[in-house]
């Protein structure tokens, strides 16, 4: 928790600085781009274990993300317990059955067909880790009083992107799952009312026979996602 006496502006010298030549920057940027092109979302996980320290390091990387007023309005609940994973799967599949039974609407279901998803989510038990991302609507000072968090969806989205990148960099595959509603996760994981679960990230090593949907490899070209105004 933060105390009120910490809430003052005190500038310090930039502690870390990168000063690459233009050519080196280009090399680094292209190498990172190529590494991220090897990131794949998978639904077929191996039960091979992943050390807790790897998950902790990746979450710590996510915690470096920028956030509104530096409030860092996120919490990550990492689950390896088979019993808890089974309960998460059961609750998530209950919501998913309603989704596929008509709650989603025909257009949404049609859009999902090329991805090959169903209400069955065995990966929620097979993957060695589930990381549940919570967005904190408000925080508390050390004296218990509440303070408002700002730009919560944007901040949590940036942190989650860093988490997915860190997991890929560590050699792991991921699958983001967003059952709706997800309130059951607060109760299962003992998280307070102020926190809203935003997604479940299953992560681990892909199985030997893992596949990806062909359509998932179709990415928009650069000229469709970038506008440059020199």
CATH superfamily: NADH Oxidase
Instruction: Give the CA-CA distance, first to last residue.
Output: 44 Å
| Helix proportion range | 25-40%
Number of strands: 6
CATH domain topology = NADH Oxidase
How many strands, what sense, and barrel or not for the largest sheet? 4 strands, antiparallel
Please state how the strands of the largest beta sheet are arranged side by side.
1-2-6-5
Using the CA coordinates, give the radius of gyration. 20 Å
Residue fraction in strands:
15-25%
Pfam families: Nitroreductase (PF00881)
InterPro entries: Nitroreductase, Nitroreductase-like, Nitroreductase/BluB
Protein name: Dihydropteridine reductase
Organism: Maliponia aquimaris
Can you walk me through this structure?
GO terms for molecular function: oxidoreductase activity. Residues 37-205 form the Nitroreductase domain. InterPro entries: Nitroreductase, Nitroreductase-like, Nitroreductase/BluB. This is Dihydropteridine reductase. The chain has 230 residues and is an alpha+beta fold. The protein has a single domain (41-217), classed as NADH Oxidase, CATH 3.40.109.10. Helices cover 38% and strands 15% of the residues. The chain has helices spanning 22-37, 52-62, 82-103, 106-112, 123-126, 152-169, 184-189, 222-225, and strands at 74-79, 129-136, 138-140, 146-148, 173-177, 195-204. It has a four-stranded antiparallel β-sheet with strand order 1-2-6-5. It has a two-stranded antiparallel sheet with strand order 3-4. Strand 3 and strand 4 (146-148) form a beta hairpin. The mean pLDDT is 95.
